[in-house]
Amino acid sequence: MIFVTVGSRNYPFDRLFKKLDRLYEEKAITDSMFAQIGTSTYKPKHYEYKDFISPEEFLEKIREADIIVSHGASGSIMKALSAGKKVIAVTRLEKYGEHINDHQIQNNEAFSSNHYVLMADLELENLGECFGKIYNGTAGIVPWENKDPMAIVNLIDKFIQRNW
């Protein structure tokens, strides 16, 4: 099962859900999927969804899923990684009204550069390829080991310092 989460902020992420429907139509995705779509106005055609779910439902969906598709919120990504799940990180972009700025680029790049997640390109063009890499075992994702409670903060900080 695939679980898609985009958080609860008041910003839609319609282009992600449209792309996921196209991937079902192209048979790039065949697994069942559940999406938490937030304030998105696009209503998926090929998979189950709810606008919002409770924190308990969120954790249940993480446990049930094999693959998590998450927007670039470090909390959502960390919950998925801590549960040992394969994560595809997608980035909300300011130019599409999906967030107030583009900080999710840096979050997703930090996780991706350390091979903890697969990061879809900013326009989501390679999202199907990300699923394909997970399906065929060539994703190159390394397991997250959370030995330090500040590890994620340090990881992102180090990445930003190196690239700015």
Can you give a write-up of this model?
The protein is of the alpha/beta class. It has one domain: Rossmann fold (3-Layer(aba) Sandwich), CATH 3.40.50.2000. 39% of the residues lie in helices and 14% in strands. The chain has helices spanning 14-25, 55-64, 74-82, 103-113, 127-135, 151-163, and strands at residues 2-5, 33-36, 48-50, 67-71, 86-90, 118-119. The protein has a 6-stranded parallel sheet, with helices on both faces. The longest helix has 13 residues, at 151-163. The mean pLDDT is 92.
Number of domains: 1
Number of helical stretches of at least 4 residues? 6
Instruction: Could you tell me the CATH topology label.
Output: Rossmann fold
The CATH class is identified as: Alpha Beta
Give the biggest beta sheet. Answer: 6 strands, parallel
Q: Tell me the CATH architecture.
A: 3-Layer(aba) Sandwich
Low-pLDDT windows of residues? none
Helix/strand structural class: alpha/beta
Tell me the layout of helices and strands.
Blueprint: E1 2-5, H1 14-25, E2 33-36, E3 48-50, H2 55-64, E4 67-71, H3 74-82, E5 86-90, H4 103-113, E6 118-119, H5 127-135, H6 151-163
Parallel strand pairs: 1-2, 1-4, 2-3, 4-5, 5-6
